Amino acid sequence: MTKTESADAQAAVGAVLASLIHDQRELHLTLPGVGTLHARVLNVDMAARRFVVECVGAVQALATLPADSHLLAGEASAVIDDVALTFAIDVPRTAADTFAADFPAGFRMEQRRAHFRVDTTDYAYVAEARTVGGDTVRLRIADLSASGVGLCSDETNPDLLPVGALLSDATLHFGTLASMETALRVVRHQASDGPDGIRYHFGCEFVGTQARVLG
Q1: Does domain 3-111 have CATH number 3.40.50.261?
Q2: Considering the entire predicted model, what is its pTM?
């Protein structure tokens, strides 16, 4: 690998780490002899090729290890747009709850979604559903696949649509094409920075085979 290719590879690594900050993604930090801790990336230094991680409880967890331990070869994982991302990370035995680490050499990526997903953000499609508490909400349809639909809203927060919630009378409106009545189950949440503040994303799966297309 030439110096230019190496620099490009490191820039790509830094961009992925920076996206974890921008999209507010949680890291799962797995350390030998410790277990899995919850963490997040706070800062990325492209010039130094290092990044800062906050891992609440790291000090207490690392204190249980033998004093002669220096660097722990751990593994960090996150999910970006249904792609499971895993990379190696060396954690100092004396790390505080916030610590710096070198850029990983690369990432392992695995597509978690079973079906191809179509991005519908630009089509102004909307979904109407009734919450567990009986309120009716309208959300934008961000993507669609054979197994489910992605919804987003600047107003409807996860408290109204918790993971596991069953929306038995949801209606998906696809502009002038058609509408579809179906049942949905919320399977994941995600928050990101929108133009007017936090934007909430809801991953939903189709439930049963009772979907009905309306003219």
Answers
A1: no
A2: 0.53
